[in-house]
Amino acid sequence: MPTTSTRHRRRGAAAAAALGLLLVGTATTSAHADSTRSQQWFLDAMQAESMWKTSTGKGVTVAVVDTGVDPSNPDLQGRIVQGEDLATDEAGDETTDRNGHGTGMAGLIAGTGAYGGGQGSFGLAPGTKIMPIRLPDVTKSANKWDSEAKFEDSVATAIRYAADHGARVVNISQAISGEPGDFPKITKAVDFALKKGVLIFAGTGNDGDKDNSLGFPAATPGVVGVGAIGKNLHRAAWSTHGAQVDMAAPGEDMLHACGGKTGLCKTDGTSDATAIASASAALIWSKHPNWTNNQVLRVMLNTIGGPTDGAKRNDGIGYGIVRPRIALKTPGNPGAADKYPLPDYPVAAAKSPSSEPSKAEGGDKSAAPAAASKSDDSNTPLWIGIGVGAAVVIAAGVAVGITRSRKRSAAQQPPTYPYAPAPAPVPGPGQPQQYRPYGAVQNHPVNHDPNSPYSNGSQGPGASA
Fold it and tell me: In this structure, are residues 335 and 297 in contact, taking their beta carbons and an 8 Å threshold?
């Protein structure tokens, strides 16, 4: 059965008080609203505030194909455009989020930090507009065949709707287990969208340390499959790996807006990583609005932080870790406008780990990939999931739990019905680690790992770990 891509470690919730918001953990921990931005480690690592001087994603619409998006969240007000509701048998519409997951993905992409006069959570591309497309809850289907059919129909319809209504990027932090060729309607919809100039990102799944199931639509030719890295910049153990992984992005301990007027959630998963990849594309496209989808993706790939062992790609992080800052600073030659840069499309076949993406002729050498991850299976702790994480919810005393997407390798047999995601590991007591205080970039410098893909643009493949 399909699952969302975010894993939540539940820590509880507390009501908003006049003196501030309290994050109540499983122990006696708390975090105040003014520390929200300081907990968004991925924005510091990616030097987001420096990028925002060049691009915020303004002028780009990202379709969030998910559980709905709640526009009442202060950090998303003014960011939501007209969308579509494909869950017509359920109460509400596309602005009704049944579990907070879709709102969370929108927050990671376009959160403005508006809560409390700028004390809220930010997305990587806060100038981006969000087009919510709500999928039906297929977990309530009678059997796995009905569930798969409903998922295929709704995702295909969502992709076509987004392409027809002005979205330039489609974010799908959802997945269903399958085999190549199982979902022809999605394959045709992807082809339709790509020909209309759209980019599609999807999470690979959260069961990399379990059955590692092959998930769709991430494994669909023409979809950019996104894996997750942790704070150590290695593949998260739960991040599903395989030939379907094209790139990776931060996906561990991600604080962001979620359901409710004052909602905050902390999650982990490839759902979250997918949102960061989608936001990265939006930043680049906003700076270069005349580029095609193929050129935006090619620059993302050409400026990526590649494997440190010199390999072109591996099954853990794909071609590497996304680096929009480098893409904005030294994009190089974007190359052919009409040629898709990944080798799996338009060939309708399984993604090949030995294939190389197309590169522009005479590209800027300074935009070469930097070191990111030594191998597919670095000795790093892995979390499971498209969306995995501690659901730290600040909203009217209601804790919101989010399920996680899972995937498996094509060589393995499909799991039996239902495809229930494995539970996320529960952290020990204690407040989420506090990072640097919020402020200008120069006021909270990041101590980068020497092989960090976010440290600079000078390192190429082959750097030692």
Answer: no
Give pLDDT tens digits for 34-45: 479 999 999 999
Flag whether the pTM goes above 0.70. Answer: yes
Tokens 């709500």 belong to residue: 134
Sequence-ordered list of residues with C-beta below 8 angstroms from that of 51, at least 6 positions apart, any chain: 283, 324, 325, 328
Q: Where are the domains of the chain?
A: 3-17+34-443
Give the distance, in angstroms, between the CA of residue 88 and the centroid of all CA atoms in the same chain: 26
Q: Regarding the domain delimited by 3-17+34-443, which CATH topology (the fold level of the hierarchy) does it fall under? A: Rossmann fold (3.40.50)
Residues catalogued as catalytic: 66, 101, 271
**Which residues are CB-neighbours of 290 under 8 A, at least 6 positions away?**
none
Q: How far is CA 129 from the centre of its chain?
A: 16
Residue type, 415: P
CA–CA dist 419, 440 (Å, integer): 44
Q: What is the pLDDT of residues 158-180, one digit of tens each?
A: 999 999 999 999 999 999 999 99
Q: What are phi and psi of 385, to 5 degrees?
A: 140, 155
User: Do the strands 129-134 and 61-66 form a parallel or antiparallel pair, or are they unpaired?
Assistant: parallel
